[in-house]
Amino acid sequence: MDIDKKVWEVLCSEEDISNRLKELGQEISDVYRDKKLYVVSLLRGSFVFTADLVRKLDIPVKIDFMTTSSYGHGTESSGSVKIVNDIKENLEDYHILVVDDITDSGLTMKYVIEHLKTKNPVSVKCCVLLDKPERRKVEIEPDYVGFTIPDKFVVGYGLNYGDYYRNIPYVFVVTDKDR
């Protein structure tokens, strides 16, 4: 797919994202107030979302990053999840919030949550910018969701196509010009 020759249809505008982040930040802050919160951001797709989200939290928070791989340069998950870079810190006294850009098949999030549970944290929950439930291959429901979206290929705001377009400040759907 030559993305530059397609139509970019805005799905979540900058304003929509900003407003939803304020709501999520308040909700997460209220839940984790007086608890030790450790945010684990799944690189690379979630770095934009995570940075904006944690700035909306009004509680102390530790942040670290895990790198997983399941997509390569394609538009669909390969179905095989690998942890490329793991959390090295002791997580036993923490409530973990895994942050990712999107949950579609659910394979990556389920794998990461199960992996982090082996580190004996107090709890493990997840937060995603986008939830695409029509694509689910495993039973998992994100605890915090920015937007539930239809089964379309989305790019922008951290989500890439061929390692590009992560810097676009909104989420867009790529469609054919004649649609």
3D structure, described in words:
There is one protein chain. The protein is built from 3 helices and 9 strands, in the order βαβαβββαββββ. The mean pLDDT is 91. Strand 2, helix 2 and strand 3 (61-69) form a beta-alpha-beta unit. The longest helix is centred in the N-terminal third of the chain and has 19 residues, at 14-32. The strands form 2 sheets. Strands 4-3-2-5-6-7 form a 6-stranded mixed beta sheet, sandwiched between helices. The protein is of the alpha/beta class and 179 residues long. The chain has helices at residues 14-32, 47-54, 107-117; strands at residues 7-12, 37-43, 61-69, 82-85, 95-103, 123-131, 144-148, 154-155, 171-175.
